[in-house]
Amino acid sequence: MDMEIKTVGVVGGGQMGSGIAQVAAMSGLQVIMCDVSEDVLRQGLQKITEILNRNVKKGKMSPEEKEEILGRVITTVVNEDLAAADFVVEAATESEAIKFQIFRDLDVICSPGVILATNTSSIPIGRIAAHTKRPDKVIGMHFMNPVPVMKLVEVIRGITTSDDTFKSTWDLALKFGKTPVQAQDYPGFIANRILMPMLNEAIFCLYHGVGKREDIDTVMKLGLNHPMGPLALADLIGLDTCLAIMETLYHGFSDSKYRPCPLLLRYVEAGWLGRKTGRGFYEYE
Ligand code: NAD
């Protein structure tokens, strides 16, 4: 069934949700951004406004265009408001319990034809889909951070995802101005399957004393042209998030090659989560 998508629902107005709302509004769609927190929604809208203001300043868009884009974004703390959406992208907290409940709710709230996509970094799509009566219409739509800047979207097919659902999601990613790639529903999909073991190995290098933190990062920057060193990148992503994804890979494949470095575990246990707590592999203001 080919339904024209005019209104996109975004569940979660945090870091990723507000970015997804922004790109959807910039591509001309109406957006309903839903979060459990009024504060988050206010901050999310503020963040979008600041980015658009910068675009106006740089001459990339007119003040009128900015107002039109902002005018297309509605925020709400009432789940039922998502009934008006033709397509939903869920970008709430990375927790199975939270996502399962959201998908059970969305399944009731949204009309039967509506596709329910998830931005999860690590939860199997099939496991989320099983909480709905429309498993053929559940799919992964994995954006990169920061969403307005990064071109890639991984479109992840669960074992039950239909071809129609895949095609509509793929086309929506294109409409957002992104470059989609197709991934199958295995732990970490493609991006985190490759990235996280690399970051984890950099942490092992530090753990084994192969190099100092600066030297490990310099090797990857100057030796492999990475824009950031792996330890600095792990700090940016959040060490708790890195650990959670490594554990998903480790348990998902039952393979010791994905075991999280004990040093990563120690840092997370100490509350050294990276930039967000002021300390990770580096210290921040
Ligand atoms: P975040 O903490 O910034 O935002 C999550 C938001 O979800 C919070 O504002 C929270 O209030 C809200 N929320 C919690 N329960 C809710 C509910 N029942 N209904 C509506 N909103 C609810 O987190 P984030 O970094 O934006 O991550 C969101 C999702 O995107 C996660 O699944 C994460 O794995 C994924 N992701 C994150 C990144 C990244 O780099 N941060 C990259 C790709 C994908």
Give your account of this protein's structure:
With 285 residues, the chain is an alpha/beta fold. It folds into 2 domains: 7-184, NAD(P)-binding Rossmann-like Domain (Rossmann fold, 3-Layer(aba) Sandwich); 191-275, Orthogonal Bundle (N-(1-d-carboxylethyl)-l-norvaline Dehydrogenase, domain 2). 47% of the residues lie in helices and 14% in strands. The chain has helices at residues 15-26, 38-57, 63-71, 96-109, 125-129, 163-175, 191-207, 213-224, 230-237, 239-253, 262-269, and strands spanning 7-11, 30-34, 73-76, 87-90, 115-118, 138-143, 152-157, 179-184. Strands 3-2-1-4-5-6-7-8 form an 8-stranded mixed beta sheet, sandwiched between helices. Helix 7 (191-207) crosses helix 10 (239-253). It starts with 6 loop residues before the first strand and ends in a 16-residue tail after the last helix. Nicotinamide-adenine-dinucleotide binds at residues 11-17, 34-37, 40, 91-94, 98, 102, 119-121, 142-143, 145, 237. The site of nicotinamide-adenine-dinucleotide (NAD) has 25 residues, from helix 1, helix 4 and strand 6.
CATH class of the largest domain: Alpha Beta
- How much of the sequence lies in strands comes to 5-15%
Biggest sheet strand line-up: 3-2-1-4-5-6-7-8
Overall number of domains: 2
CATH-level-2 architecture of the largest domain: 3-Layer(aba) Sandwich
- The whole-number mean of residue pLDDT values reads 97
Largest sheet, in brief, is: 8 strands, mixed
State the CATH superfamily name of the largest domain: NAD(P)-binding Rossmann-like Domain
Task: Give Rg in angstroms.
Answer: 19 Å
Structural class: alpha/beta
Quaternary structure type: single chain
What percentage of residues falls in helices of 4 or more residues? 40-55%
The shape is globular
DSSP helix count? 11
First-last Cα distance: 52 Å
Uncertain ranges? none
The set of bound ligands, ions and cofactors reads: nicotinamide-adenine-dinucleotide
CATH topology of the largest domain: Rossmann fold
